[in-house]
Fold each of these.
Amino acid sequence: MSKSLFRKKSLDTILKDPHQETDHGHGGQGLKKVLTVKDLTSMGIAAVVGAGIFSTIGTAAFNGGPGISLLFIITAITCGFSALCYAEFASRVPIAGSAYTYAYVSFGELIAWIIGWALILEYAIGNIVVAISWSGYFNNLLEGFGVHLPAWLTTDPTTAKNAYAEVEAALRDGKVLDKSLLFAQEAWHSAPVIAGKHIFINVPAFVVVVLISILTFIGIKESKKTTNFLVIFKILVILFVIVVGFFFVNPGNWSPFLPNGFEGVLKGVSAVFYAYIGFDAISTTAEECKNPQRDLPRGMIYSLVICTVLYILITLVLTGMVPFTSLKVADPLAYVFELVGQDWISYIISISAVVATTSVLLVFQLGQPRIWMSMSRDGLLPQKFSKIHPKFQTPSFSTLMTGIIVAIPSLFMEIGLMTDLTSIGTLFAFVLVSGGVLTLPKVVNLKGEVQEGKFKLPYINGRFIIPILYAVFMFFMLDRVQAGLTNLTNEGLQEILFLLFVLLATTLTIATVVKQFNVIPILGVLFCAYLLIEIPALSWIYFFVWMGIGLIVYFAYGYWKSRLAK
């Protein structure tokens, strides 16, 4: 049983898969190979520079002050280690499926299924968050032009109910209702009532997902052109905001640089990392690249570097223009320019926010169907998911299903825990990809020579580096470790996760000393694992429930239908 759970796919088998599927009647032809390194870099930027830079960056800056720029650097380094590992995999396994396919090679079927299920959190559920954010930006933009949609058509039931509860509390306390509470009151009373319940649905979020799904269904070439246009537009706007914003910077606002210490900076982990999720979406398009072994690694690394520079500059502008304590708002970029009397720039930012989140939706809606397509090819999902449209050469059924799964919940779902859940799914994938490089099998040609990919992960012996870093970490965290072990039976989930991380770090440090592992994948595992344990415990509970559902699906269907089982 345990052997069959961890059955692995050989690299030879994986490289033949697209051709085998064509022969087995999955649509009669493969995917269009149209993407270049420029397109892949553009897709990476499209996925990264989105809702994070226009919304979650404000909350992160509020918690960490100007020092939040350090967190972007830390997160970029963390993603950088993972990106190099993704690049090694992409060069050796140039097939759609991203971390799911890579895990199948390195760890076996059960782990591959788990990571594939986790990636649904990153792509499908993550896109619900992006769609809801898009709706907010779009409504703000319409308001700026004097167009007012009915409030009950632009929000979800939970948000509307909570907002009205604040109205009632304010009225009970005899407070004067401000603009936002007046809006919430009017929205509640104007909403239609059916069976005693006030009806609220987010129509703009639903409509944009439907339109994006149609575009991704029609073809990769059309999606590529749209993505490139959107990325050029939003980068120009962001550069404009950075240049203009520096003229309004007061250097005094950067002091103190770490007002709430490094703990305050770490509070923004989830918000900041949410800004970075998605650069791995590039790897899902491997089969549509003209030269995947060369261009996939370049696209990942180029996009990561460009996005990091933009985020750091934006953070310094935001925290320099106004005190960091005023940045806990939904639209920090537009807000700071309103404070300095430049309302016209805030309108440009609103347009760019709509464009930016549209590009994120587009890339994520491309990624999810291709992961399902790979899982279906392996027999873990019904054959229908791997069907290729004969005319558009896209995974048609998977694309339709992704559209439905994202569009319908976006009508009524609250943004709430979705950001944290999406970050857990992504970091979980990064941990497995980084660790998987260590177990990636060698390919030997007929001459007995080891065949490498076009990108080779640089080897840096970790025998001394990792133990030194481990010792430094333990020096600073010793009190927390001792407290956790002393009160183990009374600790909450957050501290238990921390102790599990310490156990993981200890194990990997010993293994690195003994086997002289490469520093890059080891640091990729440890950095991502540490960011994982900083995410609130409540989100982990939901994540475990999600994983439980996934395992039920696997043992009810995938385990028995797997092609490797046959």
Amino acid sequence: MTLEARARAALGRGDFSLAADTAKSLILQDKDQPEGYFLLGIATAETGQIGKAVPLVQAAAVRGPKAEYLAQLARLLILLRRDGEAADAAREAMALAPGDARTFDTIGCVLTRLGDHEGAIKPFQCAVAAEPDNLDYRYNLAAASSYTGRVAEAGAQYEAILAADPGNARAHYAVAILSRQTADANHVTRLKTALAEAREPGEALRIRYALAKELEDIGDPEAFGHLSAANSAHKLSLRYDFAQDAAIFDAIETVFAQRNSALHQGGGNPDDAPIFVIGMPRTGTTLVDRILSSHRDVVSAGELQAMPIAVKKLAGTPSRTVIDRETIMASAAIDPAAIGDAYLAQAHHHRPRGTARFTDKLPANFLYAGHIARALPNARIVCLRRNPMDTVWSNYKNLFASRSAYYAYSYDLMDTARYYARFSRLMGMWERLFPGRVLQLSYEQLVADQEVQTRRLIEHCGLGWDAACLAFHENAAAVATPSAAQVRRPLNADGVGKWRIHEEALAPIRDWFTEQGIALD
């Protein structure tokens, strides 16, 4: 067996120390050959040393550009948030005509992380064509197809996965949210069978969410019981306590009460290109993003982490979490222009070319609205507001990224209500500190009077009128959120008052909001 084969075999069985030692021997054998550097880089990355791995893989690519080297380099660069370099490496890898399914899939995954869902279709298709029995590759193609509106293709891929693996929880959940189910056409029986046979808590979580979604679609109140069981178990696994989020809200309020801090000095970056669409999740942020990106002068950049990353990097805090109390407190010492510059540099790699303005629709940017107002004084901010009860219910019933700290509150009804109350209080503070900077847009009013509210939205964003904004459902751009199916239909009131289906179970939340003085109408 050659040294290269030994190193690859060691990587395959997880013996990274042996793989590294063998790769070093390969380098000593011939320092001009790329393979040793590449394998040493991959072994180094597998031990968590991404920063040390990148120069090694780059050294391989310099000595002999191969699609495999460049695809793996792109993957590592994404992990380091070096998005622009990752995009270049991924596209160069694709141009070199990869010869294996894994490299195609890696390119597709990188492009997906960059928000280029359309670009990811071809490499995912090639991966599936090369290895049709690999269900992970099929899932990635199905997801990209769903994001880009290829619903029939997505459905066919998910069903192929389930034919091969009837208990595949990811595919079950994806099928459930792909379209609205009906009493005559649903997967309830299949899902109940899969739930009974689920082997792992994570599988049961996704299948229960899928089952609850389909049951709610057909008007079956049994949906609530499945959600309650799934969420209770998942909250325990996360060890979440609302105090974690309360500390973040407290820190934001403290920082912006310090009027003499560096964050309150300086003029920020004057670029007016960004339009931030913020709010609690599942309140219409994707809808408004689609409306705005239907405008001739606006394109959607998706849900960017650019602002959280800019603040985190400049704050210099050592924690591994992007947002925490320490990071927010440290942000008080940052020059706002530096935040604006860092944000625009990060966003640049995700921003499609060809239009003057772009939307960033990360809902959680409501936590950073003050930073945005100071760092980008000419950027526009739109905050979606939805009935508190519908907001709580919609957050509770949707499975977000299951390990994301942003959404840890959503697995408990009372935690979600408390989170909504702090969100609402924070939005009130932003209005007092930056009057008129944030357009508070009511989801219910938008549904009830589409043109009037759309014109109000367009005017706030400093745009000329474009009638295409009223036909947002015809927008062919990709959508990578749970709202993908809804925003491809004309505006409707189906989501208004949905909480009342479970009014009895949600009564404690309604009563708590009333006690807190939070209006429910």
Amino acid sequence: MQRASGPAPRRRPVRAVRTARPAGGAHHRRRLVVGRTLLVAALLIAGVKLVQVQGLEADALSQKSQQQRLTTKKIPARRGAITDRAGRQLALSEERRALYVLPRQLRKEWDNPKTVEQYKMNADQRTEQIAKGMHEVLGDEFPERELLAKLRSDRSFLYLADSVRPEQARQIREVKKFAEIGEEYREVRQYPGAEPASNIIGLANWRMDNPNDQKVRGLLGLENLQDSLLAGRDGRRVVETAQNNDDMVLPGTERQLEPAVPGSTLELTIDSDVQYQVQRMLADYVRKSGAKNGSAVVLDARTGEVYALANDRTFDPNDPNVLQKLSKDDPRLGNPAVTTPFEPGSVNKVVTAAAGVEYGLVRPDTVLEVPGSIQVADRVIKDAWTHGTQRMTFTGVLGKSSNVGTIKVAQQVGEERFAEMLRRFGLGQATGVGLEGESAGVVPARQQWSGSTFGNLPIGQGLSVTVLQMAGMYQAIANDGVRVPPRVIRAEIGPDGQRKDMKRPEGVKVVSPETARTVRDMMRAVTQSAPQPQRGTGPEAALEGYQISGKTGTAQQVDKTCGCYSSSQHWITFAGILPANDPRFVVGLMLDAPTVAPYNETAAPLFHDIASYLAQRFQIPASEPGPVQQLVVG
């Protein structure tokens, strides 16, 4: 077959056919690249952080984690002691431990299979072992079954023993290796002298309103007033505590320790033997006399130091529940000898006697015409016994306690000089003895005196004093006219044994030495037991072998129903000096409304008993007998 002739036809070039692509392809690629980059960066950062945590910061982070579990706790400082003037302890602290357990945690740890495998015992066996071991150390006071019940309880925290000796705690935790048992510091305050000095020393105990406070704190008396000195400075410890409970210390986790500094010791001027005997004799006399209460004080005649400060009723500071048994206003918890003033009666006549002699108005043998009564403004003052006009020596006015004779001499002294003498004797002023709640007593301000005031004050009515102030007046006469404010703290002894003696207060000159000796000699007539009319008002106070100066007192109490002086209720007082020729002690006494005869008439027999004890206790040399003094002339 022939092909057609002519040129061959031209072919079109074949074009490549493109496949269609979805929109946004370039953006997708970019996201993949960014994602891969971020992933690599995150892995690099994590790696660097891992190296930093496990390497460079491992110790710091571990310490920070540990600190988040730690709690700072106080270590209570041991409280300082209180001693008498001879160093005999009146209050002291004994160290104790409270033992506790975390029962839930103990069971959890000892039921762990690894623990069981290691120690070959479970929680029941371990608690039985602990209960038995603790009973062996602590004795029958802690029965094994009771300890076991506590150890197996479902409580998170329990005290097993509240007060055990430190060596017992050490034996349980270290010797028997019961590390599960925790311990807390405890302090037990003890009072060897118990009741006789409790009104002075007071009480220290746990604060009932804060049971978590582990520190003994002063609550009454010197324990309270000197709390900062006795308490010392607390230390610190850092412990691990249970989660969400900083009060629950994990046993054996103490990390750091700043030791506590013990408190200082207070040495008192009190003689514990004298305090005991005076308190005993006072309480017996109050009981026999039917008085509502009574107080007594014994002062050193030269220094004003308080050897005894007693009240008839006290409390037992060793009773941990005493504050729950007695109301806060109960007088047994206070110290009426310094807090409760009274009208002194005739013991206050020493002010008139001192002023009369000091200003040269009278001498012991000055004879006064003393009628049976005297009128002062709208008042008529009488003597305690009925008599017409008598001629008395000024010594006789004191010895027989004549109100009329005293007022006659006071009128010579004058109101201004008498008011000044009251101030010099310290009336109306707190003594600053260093005891809680001391009263300054009451002396009417000079500008408030009425016409009859000067008929009351010279005979000890219309003003009030404490037993301590009253004794301080006689201390001035015993100390040749210089009143030394009384003190009850003798020294502070630091925890390092360094002693700091308390500075004796500056003396206050009341009268001259000659006046003081003259008045002291005149007051021997009070205890004079010569036949009447030369007999004094307090011969029962006389002590064989010693010259005794003193003054009896009887002051009417106010009848609240009428606002007037009672004819049946009295304060009975006595102040005396032993011995008069060379004073060593001053004794002040007060009985509140005694009712039983003959003890309701005078406190002189009580002074005799106390003076007799003091003379023997301190071996005071006997006195040369003094002459009988003339009280009534003609």
